Amino acid sequence: MARILVVDDEPVIRELVRETLAVDAHEIRTAATGGEALAAAGEARPDLVLLDVHLPDGPDGIEVCRRLRRGQPTLKVILLTGMRGEETRAAGEHAGACAYLTKPFSPLELIERVEGLLGA
User: Fold this and answer.
1) Long-range contact set of residues 62-65: C-beta below 8 Å, sequence gap at least 24
2) Mean pLDDT value of segment 100-106
3) Which of 10, 28, 68, 77 is the most buried (most CB within 10 A)?
4) What is the domain partition of the chain in residue ranges?
5) Which distant-in-sequence residues (6+ apart) come within 8 Å of 111 by Cβ?
C-alpha cells in the first residue's frame, strides 16, 4: 500500500483518480490547489503525487513539483495535463516529474503508470 496525493482543481478528476487507485488499497489524499498540495504533502509524506499542471490560486503544478522534489528528492511525481505541448513536458521533466499523463486518460493507463513507478 502506497501513500498517494492527488492534486487537481477539477473535482471529477480527483474523484476518478481516487476511486481508481483506492481499489488497490492505496491511502489516497486529495488537494485542489498548489498551496493545499504543499501542505498535504508536508503532513502525509506521500510516496507518489499525481499533479495537475494548471492549478488555481497559487503555485502551478510545475512549481509545486519543483518544491516537492526539492524537499523529498526520491518522491515520484506524475504530471496530469490537458496540454499536449513539448514545452509543458520539458518544464515538468526539468522540475523533476517522473511521468506525464495527458487528459483525458483511461483508468487502465493511470494504473499502469502508478504501478510502474511504485514497482508493483
Assistant:
1) 62/88, 62/91, 62/92, 62/95, 63/34, 63/95, 64/7, 64/34, 64/37, 64/38, 65/92, 65/95, 65/96, 65/97
2) 91
3) 77
4) 3-105
5) 20, 21, 24
CA distance 92 to 87: 9
Give the per-residue pLDDT at 81: 87
Task: Determine the straight-line distance between the first and last CA of the chain, rounded to whole angstroms.
Answer: 10
The string of pLDDT tens digits covering residues 38-76 is 999 999 999 999 999 999 988 999 999 999 999 899 999
CATH class of 3-105: alpha beta
What are the distances in angstroms from CA 25 to CA 2, 5, 42, 109?
8, 14, 22, 18
**What pLDDT band is residue 106 in, cutting at 50, 70 and 90?**
very high
Cα distance between residue 120 and residue 86, in whole Å: 29
Q: Which three cell numbers stand for residue 16?
A: 476518478
Q: pLDDT band at 120, cuts 50/70/90?
A: low
